[in-house]
Write a structure and sequence with these properties.
422 residues, Growth Hormone, Chain: A, 13 helices, 0% strand
């Protein structure tokens, strides 16, 4: 055969690039849906409260223990929302469920802009948690269900960058707003969530129809005892991750600001580093998953996060606390993305939404128990330090469960269970 004319090669390459751009353009509604849902549901509704906590105490709106319990109210609400997310979308239009959830988060900020009773703030922190839990279940699953199989690895990681974007935004915006007033801070965060809600609604309205279910779904293997046990172990590890999640996301800024007297500026800087890590986390997770697979990537993430959470117990030098902030920030959405991908690898995309809802509910339950338990322990001990040690040990336990899940899968001969890989 003769060589292909050069102009034909150029035409083929141009067509290939155009196809790639078309594929990525088709991803935009799914990314907008997932990113905005995680941005508001966790990144702002949850993480924006962390730098607010010491300000609420210093402005004498609440005592330190009351402010900690208000943080835990969001965790309790998250459990309720995680349990309700899947049933609500089976009964009501998904767009309406997402819209109502965004409305709840916006109101939770606007209606707390002035000093009020503990009960009033507790109710609205609870509402923000419920709405965040619903968005965390429905948003990513809706985005992935509208994404073709060959794009799910990338989209599945990127939808969780909203968590980091929210954390980074709260780290950069909240300290500046607090220089003005607490009222301005609450109102601005509410307006940011309103904008995010409008963007998410635009994404939902332009989502493509879900691809036809693949014949490689896990229906035939979903009942296999070994596969079921592997899934249970992964969900159990994810629940333990929720315990390690609490110290940095609820107490970290207050721990640095007041308990260690580092000052508001130093603590805000650490929260900013945390936010940068949270933005990078899903990107790191996606790269790791492509290199070593979902299982090994998840195991590495648990190990790294365990070390990072316990690090402040050993040293609070600038380098140590900065490494802890960045790595915990990165591994929070990183483990979320890797757990989601690992479950899809085990059961297939057709079963992913149901099991992801169960995993999120298990995470939320453990998180709520840990949030209230750690708030009680802080009230009892008067120090946050042991809470970081508890979180680190729980994450080490999660690492062990991840290793065990793979061993169970291998023993049952299921190591080739339907990967989500490009």
């Amino acid at each position: 055969m003769g060589t292909m004319p050069l102009y034909l090669v150029r035409v083929d390459h141009s067509a290939s690039r155009q196809d790639n751009r078309m594929v990525q353009k088709r991803d935009l509604p799914a990314l907008l849906t997932g990113v905005m849902a995680t941005f508001a549901g966790i990144g702002v509704a949850r993480f924006a409260y962390t730098p607010l906590l010491p300000a609420l105490v210093q402005e004498q709106w609440f005592s330190a223990s009351q402010a900690a319990y208000l943080g835990a109210a969001n965790l309790l609400g998250y459990l309720i929302g995680a349990l309700a997310g899947h049933p609500l979308t089976e009964r009501y239009p998904r767009r309406a469920v997402i819209g109502a959830s965004f409305a709840g988060i916006v109101l939770s900020f606007l209606l707390c802009a002035e000093p009020g009773s503990f009960a009033w703030f507790f109710i609205w922190r609870l509402v923000s948690g419920i709405a965040g839990g619903i968005l965390m279940v429905v948003g990513p699953s809706l985005a992935l269900s509208a994404t073709t199989a060959d794009r799910r690895t990338n989209v599945g990681a990127l939808v969780f960058t909203g968590i980091g974007l929210g954390a980074l935004l709260s780290a950069s915006v909240v300290p500046v707003l607090l220089e003005t007033s607490l009222m301005a801070t609450w109102v601005t965060l509410g307006l940011l969530c309103l904008v995010a809600g409008m963007l998410c609604d635009r994404g939902v309205s332009h989502l493509a129809s879900p691809p036809l279910p693949s014949s490689e779904g896990a229906n035939g293997q979903g009942g296999h005892a070994g596969m079921v046990m592997a899934v249970v172990l992964v969900i159990g590890a994810y629940a333990l991750d929720a315990v390690g999640f609490v110290p940095h996301t609820v107490f970290w800024v207050d721990y640095l600001t007041r308990e260690n007297t580092l000052g508001h500026y130093a603590a805000s800087l650490q929260w900013g580093i945390f936010g940068v890590g949270a933005v990078c986390g899903p990107l790191i997770a996606g790269a790791i998953a492509r290199q070593v697979g979902w299982h090994h990537g998840l195991a590495l993430a648990f190990l790294a996060k365990a070390a990072a959470v316990i690090l402040p117990v050993l040293s609070l030098a600038f380098l140590s606390r900065s490494a802890s902030s960045f790595m915990v920030g990165a591994m929070i959405p990183g483990i979320v993305a890797l757990t989601s991908g690992r479950l899809a690898e085990l059961v297939g995309p057709s079963e992913h939404k149901r099991l992801w809802g169960q995993a999120t509910a298990a995470f939320a339950a453990a998180q709520a128990i840990a949030g209230y338990g750690m708030s009680w322990l802080y009230d009892l001990w008067g120090t946050y330090t042991p809470l970081f040690a508890i979180g680190g040990f729980m994450l080490a336990g999660g690492f062990a469960l991840i290793l065990l899940s793979h061993g169970v899968q291998m023993r049952q001969g299921n190591e080739s269970a339907h990967p989500w890989r490009q």
